[in-house]
Inverse folding.
């Protein structure tokens, strides 16, 4: 019987190796770097972020144009079927039935309460905010790609655990079949192993479906063609450096944090809006130059080009007790609201960074705990198998030990994948995710 068992084990191992080799040859490998590159090129959110930045740049150019004079040219002509101006003896013997006019005007605002400068400052602030928003979109894509990629890796590794358990149960089932044929065990023990295998096949089917969904999710997000033969490749059991050694302290410098910078820009914009509303209460002064000529097509009226210079002064007296004054007060309230949002945002960002830091530390400890569980489960299964072969314990103890080992290996796989996600989250919250990816 032992000879048969050894033969069966060799056949099973060879078959597993053959099918594993075949699947490896047929599988199309996906690396995190390849998926990330594709996602960065495909992402609609990044494209929209870049388009918003372009919009802000155009608005900035429009604001800069306010520093230059406004120039306007105009021409008109009039033709009458009868004399528009009847003949005047000695002055206009033929009358006038047509005339034309051309003019050009240039005007320049000298002072408008600072509104021109404020418009440029607001446009610059909006352009900076849109650039930060584009960076945020990119970082968000990096985080989402990592999360989806490691979710796929975790499922694939769990499939490997199930495949290993399946080989073990097949060997055990063959052993039980031989023992039953030899009349050494009851049929219930064989059925017990079959039930265990059925449960394992159910898990395998569930994981297969979850893998397809995770793969589809990643493919759609990264803009790659969905194919069930795609396999995510990454060394999930690589040695991980403790976060306390890899990162000295949680990065709490919010001045370089994109989320904080956006909140600060909102406050700056609110303060500029107050100044902009106050500018409507101040006098406005402009100067200009104009030149015009009026004449008739068939009569020389002798009117030369008439150049004139002009200046305008506007004083908004009623604005001091009308709606403009109320608008200034409303904008001042908006500044206070923006200040409160900035303080709340600072607290929330600090809390979020510290939480991601502690989550990362806990994820590392979870790996250590999972590794200890695997060592125990492997030793326990070996001991239970030896005892079962020696008749010192029953089949239930052996199957429980196998189930414990399977759970321990699955927990270890999850711990590694979860650590990678937690690390990406920490780097994202501290605005370091993009730089780390670039370095790698």
């Amino acid at each position: 019987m032992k000879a048969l068992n050894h033969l069966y084990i060799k056949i099973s191992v060879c078959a597993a190796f053959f099918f594993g080799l075949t699947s490896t040859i047929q599988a199309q490998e996906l690396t995190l770097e390849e998926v990330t590159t594709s996602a960065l090129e495909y992402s609609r959110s990044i494209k929209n972020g870049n388009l918003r930045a372009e919009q802000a740049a155009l608005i900035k150019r429009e604001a800069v144009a306010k520093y230059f004079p406004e120039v306007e040219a105009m021409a008109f002509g009039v033709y009458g079927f009868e004399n528009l101006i009847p003949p005047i003896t000695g002055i206009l013997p033929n009358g006038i039935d047509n005339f034309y006019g051309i003019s050009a005007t240039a005007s320049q605002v000298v002072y408008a309460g600072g509104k021109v400068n404020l418009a440029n400052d607001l446009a610059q602030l909006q352009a900076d905010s849109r650039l930060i928003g584009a960076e945020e979109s990119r970082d968000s894509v990096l985080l989402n790609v990592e999360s989806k990629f490691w979710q796929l890796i975790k499922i694939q590794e769990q499939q490997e655990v199930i495949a290993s358990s399946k080989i073990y149960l097949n060997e055990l089932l063959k052993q039980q079949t031989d023992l039953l044929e030899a009349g050494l065990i009851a049929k219930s023990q064989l059925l017990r192993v079959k039930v265990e295998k059925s449960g394992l096949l159910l898990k395998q089917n569930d994981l297969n479906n979850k893998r397809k969904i995770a793969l589809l999710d990643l493919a759609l997000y990264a803009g790659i063609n969905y194919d069930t033969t795609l396999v995510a490749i990454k060394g999930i059991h690589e040695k991980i450096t403790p976060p306390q050694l890899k990162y000295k302290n949680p990065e709490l410098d919010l001045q370089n944090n994109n989320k904080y910078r956006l909140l600060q820009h909102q406050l700056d914009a609110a303060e500029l809006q107050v100044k902009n509303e106050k500018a409507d209460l101040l006098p406005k002064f402009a100067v200009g130059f104009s030149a015009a000529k009026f004449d008739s097509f068939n009569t020389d009226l002798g009117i030369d080009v008439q150049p004139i210079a002009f200046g305008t002064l506007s004083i908004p007296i009623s604005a001091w007790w009308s709606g403009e004054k109320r608008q200034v007060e409303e904008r001042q309230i908006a500044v206070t609201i923006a200040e409160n949002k900035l303080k709340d945002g600072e607290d929330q960002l600090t809390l979020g960074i510290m939480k991601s830091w502690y989550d990362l530390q806990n994820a590392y400890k979870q790996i250590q705990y999972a590794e200890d569980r695997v060592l125990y489960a492997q030793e326990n299964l070996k001991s239970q198998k030896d005892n079962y072969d020696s008749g010192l314990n029953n089949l239930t103890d052996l199957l429980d030990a196998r189930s414990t080992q399977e759970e321990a290996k699955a927990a270890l796989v999850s711990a590694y994948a979860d650590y990678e996600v937690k690390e990406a989250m920490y780097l994202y919250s501290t605005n370091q995710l993009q730089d780390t990816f670039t370095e790698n």
